[in-house]
Structure formats: structure tokens, C-alpha cells
Amino acid sequence: MSGILNSSIGRKFAMALSALFLMIFLLQHFVINFSSVISADAFNNMSHFMGTNWLIQYVMQPVLILGVIFHFVMGFVLEIKNKKARNISYAKNNGGANSSWMSRNMIYSGLFILIFLVIHFIDFWIPEINTKYIQGDMSGLLPNGEYRYYEELVHKFAPIWRVALYCLGFVFLSLHLLHGFMSAFQSVGANNKYTQGLKGFGKAYAIIIPLGFIVIALFHHFNH
Amino acid sequence: MNLTLKIWRQKNANDKGKMVDYPISDISPDMSFLEMLDVLNEQLINKGEEPVAFDHDCREGICGMCSLYINGEAHGPDRGVTTCQLHMRMFKDGDTIYIEPFRAAAFPVIKDLVVDRSAFDRIQHAGGFISVNTSGNTIDANAIPVNKHDADDAFAAATCIGCGACVASCKNSSAMLFVGAKVSQFALLPQGQVEATDRVLNMVKQMDEEGFGNCTNTGACEVECPKGISLENIARMNREYLKASLKG
Known about the structure:
Chain A has about 220 residues and is mainly α. Chain A has a single domain (about 5-85, about 105-225), classed as 3 helical TM bundles of succinate and fumarate reductases (Up-down Bundle), CATH 1.20.1300. Chain A has helices at about 10-40, 40-50, 55-85, 100-105, 105-135, 150-155, 160-185, 195-224. In chain A, helix 1 crosses helix 8 (about 195-225). The termini of chain A are far apart. Chain B is about 35% helix and about 10% strand. Chain B is built from 8 helices and 7 strands; from the N terminus they run ββαβββββααααααα. Chain B has a 5-stranded mixed β-sheet. In chain B, strands 6-7 form a two-stranded antiparallel ribbon. In chain B, helix 2 packs parallel to helix 5 (about 175-185), helix 2 (about 120-125) runs antiparallel to helix 6 (about 195-210) and helix 5 (about 175-185) packs across helix 8. The longest helix of chain B is centred in the last third of the chain and has 16 residues, at about 230-245. The model of chain B has no long low-confidence stretch (mean pLDDT about 95).
């Protein structure tokens, strides 16, 4: 077992596990966010629960942040190693003949997602941490006594430039997932009779989730 | 057919190398790609120039010796064939054809289009075998019952000829399809079980030491493989490796 992360397969496995974890997180993030389109109360209640539950705040949140950092750092480390494995490039290379654009450009879609995440953290996560842990306001309430989460969400999606930026981020997320979903399963050794079905599910996941996030951003921009 | 060939010329392993243009005329569409290169070399020799060095042996697609990255693809634009099985009818009159060696840090160029693929041999030496008593008491392999599905998969994996097209096609120069096939052909059979743990650990260790890249599951290797080796073999190797790591 020792040194498994020093092997190529071990690194692939770790990369895939972090990806699977992030995809589960993305699904729950989507479900909660989508509730804002259906019911402001439901979104407020779920957001308050997620924002104040100790297990989520002190266990799952640090694990998630570590997972994100690990996935990005390992992605860049592997990219550098892989570049070194071919010291002279081909004069002519027809990559499109044998593989998808998404699969060959995971580092670039990943890089755009990283930039998007930095913006997303500045927009939502840092103000949230500031309110709860620096100013010490764990109530989740506005001065008028109502929950603040829905109001803050609507307020954030008022400027069109932010909506456009988020939509672009979700397009890159979709491109990343179109290869990443199935790739994670292949890396953990899951290539069997269920693969074809899983491929279809992966494509649906990679399109529906980012598209749903786009719908949420557009809904709040145009409805308020 | 009249063609323009752009061929990688490199005097030796230390030479920098460059692409050189060679116009060639009156090529029959029924010629194999290697026969076309033979014609070019005859012309170069007649002119007193150095012929283009390239690998070949059986010329019937089973030895794994021929290589070449042709117009941006390993073994050229046809599917399920080696370069010796590629025919000039795949090209059009007036085409420009790029001919390059398989590129990978683990496959250094020896001369022109000839690369050193002995890294594959060293991976095989690390574990791509079974130890069988050959002192006269060898059990007939047919006496050991094997599930038909497993036997078919093992045979399919064993059709890998070790040409290196997987490495050449992979954007990461990963050798995982080759190693996956070599691990799978034994992992699927009862005879391969005794040394299964050491085999996968040692072969993967050697693969990493040779400087091949990491697989990112683009699937390019499977598409370009002249023998149609499936990505399932990489998934099986991953499972075997994780199982072996937990044991060992």
C-alpha cells in the first residue's frame, strides 16, 4: 500500500476519487440552488441548515475545500508530468481523429473552472464566512427578521455581467464533466457491462447540471 | 499518384533532426505505404543520398515492428492496421504526407524514423510472464478449465503486438494500453494468478520508471491500436493494481 500515490495508477485513482466526491457535492449544490427557483422558503431553510450545521460547516466544508485543492493541484502536477513524457512535439498531429476535444483539453476547462471558482468564492463564500465567523452573526436573518439567503442570491444575479460570467463558467464545467464523469469511473477500474448505461447517465449529468445552474442564474436575473 | 512527402530526418540519437521535403511521382495506389518508402529509398540511393531509415519486419501486420506517425496518426489514417498494411489508396494524388517517428521521451529516436522501443521489453521482463515448470511434468494448458468469456478476453488482450501506437497516439505518451493488455492476458487466466500481485506492481513500477505519461482516458490509444485492444484492459489493470497494492 505504501507509496501508492507515487505510482501513475495511484495518482489516477486519487484524482478519480476526488472527482467523484466533487460530482456528488455538485449534485447537492444544484438541488439546493434549484429550490430557489421553486420556493424562496425552501431555499432559505436549506441554506440556513447547511450554513449552521456543525457537521457540514466544520467537517464537510474543510473536506470539500481540501478536495477542490487536491483535484486542482494533482491535475496540474499530472499535466506537467505528462508534458515531460513527450519532449518533441509532432509536426502534424490529428488529435480530433481519435479523441474528443473535451478529453484533450481538461487542463484548460479545469483552469477556467478554477478562475470561475475564485470569483464564486469572492461572491458568495467569503461574504458568508465574514458574516458568520468574523462578525459572528449566525442568525441568518435580515434586519426585517426574514432569512437573508434568498435576498442575497437574487441581489447577486442582478448585474448582467455576473450572470454572463457564471453562464460561461457553467459551459466550461459542462465541457469538463463531459469527459470527466466517465473518465473517473474508468480510472477506478469500472469498465464493465454497465459502462454503456453509465456513459449515457454521465452525458446527461454533464449537460443537465450545468444547464440547470444557468437556468437558476437567468431566472433570478430576469424575474427580479 | 504524385505526392509530397515531409519526412523527419535525424542522423543519430544526438542529432537535432528536421523535416525534409521529398517529391515522389508515379506511385501506385495498390502499393503499401512501406513499398512507397522503398521506392523513395531506391531513388535516394541512385542519387547518392542517404536512404530514410524506418522499422519493418514481417510486413503482414503481426510483428509490431513497423511504426510511423503518418499525417498526425499512428500507422496512418486507416483503422485496425499497421503501417505495412496501410495502402496508398488511402491518399489522393497531390497530397502532402507528413511522416514522423513515434514520439515519446521513453521512445528515443535512433535514426530518422527508427525509435528505440526497448522500454516495452523491460516492462515485459518486469512481470509479463508466468513461471511454468518445464522439467517434463508440465500440465497441458487445455487440462485447466477456463470460462469461455475469460478465455476470449485473455486472447483479445494477447493480440497486442507491442508496436507502441498507443504511446505515440496518447497526448500524454502513456503506455497503459500496452501494459493493461499484458497484465490482462494473464490476470484473466488461472495460470496467471500465482504471480498476479507481483506482476502488476512490477510492470507498473517499470512503466513509471521508463518515463511514460499518465493515462487521462482520452481513448486515442484504443482507436489507433492496430489490434483493437480495448480500454477495458486499462480498467482491469487499475483494479489489479489497487488489489495488489492493498495486499502487498
